[in-house]
Amino acid sequence: MLLPKNLKLLTFSKWNNNAPYVPFGFLDFDEESDGAGSYYGLYWFYGREDMEPVVCWYEHEIWSLEITHNCLDDFLVEFGYSESNSDNLDIYDSGSEFLKAKLKAQKGDLDNCILQMNVFVNHVPEDSEAWGILADVHRRKGDTENADKMALKSILSNWSFGFPTQKSIQQFKKINQNGSLSNDSLVKRLNDFELTASYNELSMSYDVVKQAIDEYYEKKEYINALILEHNYALMISNETSSFQFKNDFNVDIWKEQFQLKCEKYLNRSTLSFEDIFKR
């Protein structure tokens, strides 16, 4: 994993002890935390281990990540931990940019929505709602092939950035199973896939999703497998202990096994406070 140069200016106390509520690849630090369970951290997107991480804010009450800074240097300068070497401090306001693109879709400015939302998903490639909006806009333009691809991405996104909306789920259900995605492990199970994802109601067809995860691993589609497995763990962790036992899920065992998979398939090693200062 590519580490930023100024890590020593931060105080790290743990590595992702709150998984799956925050994803593996999120390295939280103490600076500017609210003292009540929400905090900033570095985050490496799945498959972008060779790139510097972004800085995210984790809001523990809603289990949600939001990107606040493109890189660690931007964070350090904004909060006075270091001085800027540039006059062009670039703080990417992901929430604002997302809302601008979403508004264009609502107003029917479809082409500009696509342009602006593509910039957003380049910064935040794991945001489900953004991909769902892109799916809807492409479908409204008659581009069903790209709409289907975006709809699949809306499900194969990291739900730590927000659960799929009902509109995203509806877009996923519209995918042509005889089209270019006919061999996809999740698409071929589309008719049996059920998902209700909101902060007051969480349910999913766990058996179907587990089958898709196993098949993604068999086909060596590791990013799809890992992201969907994290989402699976996030959902089932909120079920009753008896339901988890029935489905052979133990969160502590899952953490250990999932960490090994990230190391094996993504070269994503676990970092400790001591490791950081050795590098």
Keyword list:
279 residues, alpha+beta, 4-stranded antiparallel beta sheet, two-stranded antiparallel ribbon, 11 helices, globular
Number of strands: 6
Element string (H = helix, E = strand):
EEEEHHHHHHEEHHHHH
What is the CA-atom radius of gyration, in angstroms? 19 Å
Helix tally equals 11
Overall structural class, as computed from helix and strand content, comes to alpha+beta
Helix content: 40-55%
Strand order of the largest sheet: 1-2-3-4
**Which stretches are low in confidence, meaning pLDDT under 50 for 5 or more residues running?**
none
Largest sheet: 4 strands, antiparallel
What is the end-to-end distance? 12 Å
Tertiary shape: globular
Q: What's a quick, concise take on this entry?
A:
It is built from 11 helices and 6 strands. With 279 residues, it is α+β, with helices and mostly antiparallel strands.
